[in-house]
């Protein structure tokens, strides 16, 4: 999709940044490994090991009160119950994942659009460093209160007798309160976007702020319109930020069950919710099986994304 | 599971009655509160009390220290986590506060100590609701579900089998219980409600709600199905797969038709839904109704002709407890049943296990309002002094006999629990 000019810019940028680390690697491979060791240790003890345990447990049997360390794929087979028998109707797990993916896609595209715009404004329109910092901090406002309070706060706004409905009725636009404002997919996506746009803004802003302003001037001098500069210069150079932001948003939304639960009135299924229900019923192996499935699907999405952009290379 | 129900109840009570004091309770739970002025002996008697926030009141631990010299260290967890902890870390607590229906999971794990009934002073005075399944006046009450008397006794000190006849080996000493029903907004419904079927009445389309706690939600659903005459369950608390299918089918149809505004899981969610008018009829808990009312909004804990769904909780002791600690555990349980704590619980709209001792610690007016269904002579106050009800009001559902006597079923863990949980996920996804 990129024009030739865009690719050229792309390569030149990476050639510059790549020289330094590659020299380091050649010289001090051992030291580099040593330096990475603490992180690797933390990573393996607190991430890889638990993940391995979850995977093992997912293939165990269970009863009402304990896990039985005997090989059983019950957790998996129960999860996919009815997927063939119920055809052409979708089984629970497929319905759940379709719903989760739909919410994820909507949230991702909206956070990307808003996040990109906000980051663009911060990086290119706000000149002073101080204001850039102040405005970025302002973006963290949604995180100043707890998740639950933030979500409960939507009820007086979007509820049947909420501000929005009252306002619309007052203006005469509607006669009946709009029921779909709250406890619907609309409200779920709204809350998710509200919560997670920040995770898009920061990495994209970080990528944009590193763009050499001269490149933009060069594009302008070469006669590119604003739109062409955006598409051919800014977006390709902001790609690592976009991908990192997307990874944040997608992984969070795929595993979310609190926001979807509260804003969806607990009537919308999500992959995380299934795991929670299983855990609460002390059915650990079944929960683990669902976690492994969710992990697999999320990894698929992420690896597809990283195929589009090689984040490590771009950084 | 209704473990979390209990958690929410506890939260509820705390939120309602103590407000900011709840944070202090948590601090106490973490052992942060030290330096009580009154210390009995050089060797501090400490008991680690695992439970959810409900009974872990600061007042109770303070009073207990004052009376017995036993220092209670609260370990606060969500109800689900309490159960997980009992099963996975039995050494991490001494006294456990849990619900009867959890025993079907906890006792087989072998981590629960069989208490000696003879060492519980007031054991014979515990209301026959628990020991015989009947009211003090002899009236039998509903026994569907995991009714306490089914799991109260063990066959032997180290047995994992429940005994249906009284033995001296007791699993869980009851402390607090109640009867749950639907909460309604009489100001918005404007007509009498008398049956569980009203929950699925299309008149309330988009304005009804139930709990999203599968084991409790399905029992409320079963009350509706049975009330509407579509099926009569042999035991609502222990359905067959076919019965689960039928119940969930009826609920799924209602969900698809848009009957439910939302499902709730958290005490505060239920209060918000009701107070904001998002729902006008829903499963509810007594203190949540009180909280809505204390906001100046009409709300009734509506007695229904098919009866109540009941729950009960109390104390277990960990099998890891031995020696003097075991004596302290008995001392603590005995203190709990000796009246002060019972009166404290009764004043919150719950019921205490030993009625006689609680009565001795309440005023005649309080007893009349909470227990006898009489109109309050003066304002009814919560333990912290805030006014709960104005003089002249009567408790919804009436007296202890009226309410507990109308219990139809108890919170339960079904034999087909695993299947039910799967079906519940299907229901949510539908």
Q: Could you please describe the fold and organization of this structure?
A:
The complex is a heterodimer of chains A (315) and B (430). Chain A is mostly helical and 315 residues long. Chain A has helices at 4-27, 29-57, 74-79, 92-125, 129-138, 147-152, 154-158, 163-171, 185-209, 213-221, 226-255, 258-263, 271-280, 284-308, 311-314, and strands at residues 60-62, 67-71. Chain A has a two-stranded antiparallel sheet with strand order 1-2. In chain A, strand 1 (60-62) and strand 2 form a beta hairpin. The longest helix of chain A has 34 residues, at 92-125. In chain B, helix 11 crosses helix 12 (286-294). In chain B, strands 1, 2, 3, 4, 6, 10, 11, 12, 13, 14, 15 and 18 form a twelve-stranded mixed sheet that branches. Chain B has a two-stranded antiparallel sheet with strand order 5-9. The A-B interface holds A 64-66, 78, 81, 92, 95-96, 99, 148, 152, 155-156, 159-162, 179, 182-183, 261-262, 264-269, 273-274, 277-283, 286 and B 1, 3-4, 80, 83-84, 87, 104-106, 108-109, 206, 212, 214, 255, 260-266, 268-269, 272, 276-278, 413, 417-418, 421-422, 424-426, 428-430.
Short description:
The complex is a heterodimer of chains A (315) and B (430). Chain A is mainly α and 315 residues long. Chain A has one domain (4-314): MetI-like fold (Orthogonal Bundle).
């Amino acid at each position: 999709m990129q024009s030739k000019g865009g690719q050229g810019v792309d390569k030149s940028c990476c050639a510059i940044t790549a020289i330094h680390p590659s020299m380091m690697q050649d010289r001090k491979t051992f030291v580099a490994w040593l330096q990475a060791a603490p992180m690797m240790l933390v990573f393996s003890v607190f991430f890889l090991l638990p993940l391995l345990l979850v995977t093992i447990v997912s293939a165990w049997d269970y009863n009402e009160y304990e896990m039985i360390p005997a090989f059983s794929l019950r957790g998996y087979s129960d999860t996919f119950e009815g997927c063939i028998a119920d055809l052409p109707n979708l089984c629970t797990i497929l319905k759940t994942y379709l719903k989760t993916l739909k919410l994820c896609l909507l949230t991702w595209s909206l956070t990307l659009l808003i996040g990109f715009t906000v980051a663009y404004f911060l990086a290119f329109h706000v000149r002073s460093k101080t204001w850039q910092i102040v405005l970025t901090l302002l973006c963290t406002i949604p995180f100043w209160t707890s998740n639950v309070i933030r979500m409960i706060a939507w009820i007086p706004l979007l509820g049947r007798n909420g501000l929005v409905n009252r306002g619309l009725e007052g203006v005469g636009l509607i006669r009946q309160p709009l029921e779909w404002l709250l406890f619907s997919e609309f409200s779920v996506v709204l809350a998710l976007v509200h919560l997670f746009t920040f995770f898009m803004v920061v990495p994209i802003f970080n990528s944009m702020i590193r763009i050499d302003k001269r490149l933009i001037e060069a594009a302008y001098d070469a006669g590119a319109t604003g739109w062409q500069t955006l598409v051919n210069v800014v977006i390709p150079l902001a790609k690592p930020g976009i991908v990192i932001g997307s990874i944040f948003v997608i992984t969070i939304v795929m595993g979310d069950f609190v926001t979807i639960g509260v804003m969806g009135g607990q009537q919308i299924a999500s992959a995380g919710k299934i795991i929670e229900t299983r855990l609460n019923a002390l059915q650990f192996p079944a929960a683990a099986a669902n976690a492994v499935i969710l992990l697999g699907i999320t990894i698929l999405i992420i690896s597809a994304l990283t195929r589009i952009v090689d984040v490590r290379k771009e950084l | 599971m209704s473990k979390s129900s209990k958690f929410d109840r506890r939260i509820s009570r705390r939120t309602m009655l103590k407000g900011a004091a709840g944070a202090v309770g948590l601090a106490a739970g973490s052992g942060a509160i030290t330096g009580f002025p009154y210390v009995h002996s050089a060797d501090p008697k400490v008991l680690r009390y695992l439970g959810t926030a409900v009974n872990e009141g600061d007042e109770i631990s303070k009073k207990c220290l004052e009376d017995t010299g036993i220092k209670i260290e609260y370990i606060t967890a969500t109800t689900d986590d309490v159960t997980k902890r009992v099963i996975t870390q039995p050494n991490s607590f001494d006294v456990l506060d849990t619900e009867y229906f959890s025993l079907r999971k906890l006792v087989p794990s072998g981590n629960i100590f069989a208490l000696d009934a003879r060492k519980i002073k007031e054991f014979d005075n515990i209301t026959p609701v628990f020991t015989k399944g009947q009211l003090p006046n002899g009236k039998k009450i509903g026994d569907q579900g995991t009714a306490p008397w089914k799991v109260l006794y063990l066959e032997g000190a180290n047995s994992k089998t429940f005994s249906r006849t009284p033995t001296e080996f007791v699993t869980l000493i009851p402390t607090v219980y109640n009867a749950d029903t639907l909460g309604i907004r009489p100001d918005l419904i404007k007509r009498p409600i008398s049956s569980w079927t009203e929950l699925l009445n299309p008149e309330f389309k988009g304005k009804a709600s139930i709990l999203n706690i599968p084991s409790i939600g399905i029992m409320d659903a079963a009350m509706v199905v049975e009330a509407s005459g579509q099926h009569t369950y042999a035991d609502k608390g222990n359905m067959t797969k076919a019965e689960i299918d039928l119940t969930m089918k009826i609920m799924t149809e209602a969900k698809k038709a848009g009957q439910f505004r939302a499902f709730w899981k958290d005490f505060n969610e239920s209060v918000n839904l009701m107070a904001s008018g998002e729902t006008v009829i829903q499963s509810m808990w007594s203190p949540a109704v009180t909280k809505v009312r204390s906001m100046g909004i009409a709300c009734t804990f509506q007695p229904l002709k098919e009866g109540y769904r009941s729950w009960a909780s109390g104390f277990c002791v960990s099998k890891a407890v031995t020696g003097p600690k075991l004596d302290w555990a008995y001392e603590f349980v005995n203190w709990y049943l000796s009246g002060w704590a019972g009166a404290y619980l009764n004043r919150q709209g719950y019921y205490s296990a030993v009625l006689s001792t609680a009565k001795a610690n309440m005023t005649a007016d309080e007893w009349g309002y909470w227990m006898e269904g009489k109109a309050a002579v003066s304002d009814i106050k919560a333990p912290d002094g805030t006014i709960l009800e104005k003089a002249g009001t009567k408790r919804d559902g009436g007296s202890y006999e009226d309410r507990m006597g109308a219990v139809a079923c108890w919170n339960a863990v079904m034999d087909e629990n695993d299947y039910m949980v799967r079906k519940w996920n299907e229901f949510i996804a539908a």
